[in-house]
Amino acid sequence: MSKYNHITEAMRQKIEVMLIFSRTQKNIAKAIGISEGGLSLELKRNRHASGTYSAEYAEAQARKRRKGSKTRTVLTGKILEYIETKLKEYWSPDQISNAGKLELNPLEVSVESIYEYIYLPENKTKKLWNIYEDLAQSVKRRVSVV
Fold it and tell me: What does residue 121 show for φ and ψ, rounded to 5 degrees?
């Protein structure tokens, strides 16, 4: 139970049957091998408006959420070149991400992806983190005058 796995359609069918037979959430979770919190979330997210649980309805809801989720953008040539150029111009990862939404349309790059790229071991020779740290230190030195 330490590693998270998606709840399968078969698991949802077992949940439905066990709920019909008035099993407790603790017993259901143990029987299908998920945490009680995971089961509670499943029931909360996928119940009908009437409060009943249906495996078929739950599976449809889960598929709808998965279909609407974003896929991760792969950082390739044009995007990497854009990130490196902006870092050398002392842009912050946040600025790069926000500007990238306009300039790299339809591709978006998250702030987290930029940080991951900056600190990749293979980028050590490029010293991208030094550029970013110089920027961060210059921001820290600013003093507000009242």
Answer: -55, -35
- Write b or e for each residue in 1-29: b if 16 or more Cβ atoms lie within 10 A of its Cβ, otherwise e: eeeeeebeeebbbbbbebbeeebebeebb
Dist. CA 124–CA 79, nearest whole Å: 19
Q: How far is CA 135 from the centre of its chain?
A: 27
Q: Are 113 and 144 in contact (CB under 8 A)?
A: no
Q: How far apart are CA 80 and CA 113, in angstroms?
A: 11
pTM of the model: 0.50
Q: Which residue has the higher pLDDT, 123 or 91?
A: 91
Secondary structure letter of residue 89 according to DSSP: T
Give the residue with greater pLDDT, 116 vs 137. 116
Helix ranges, the chain (H):
9-20, 25-32, 36-46, 55-68, 77-88, 93-103, 111-118, 128-141
Query: Tokens 């409060």, residue?
Result: 51
Angle at 129 between CA 120 and CA 73, to 5 degrees: 50
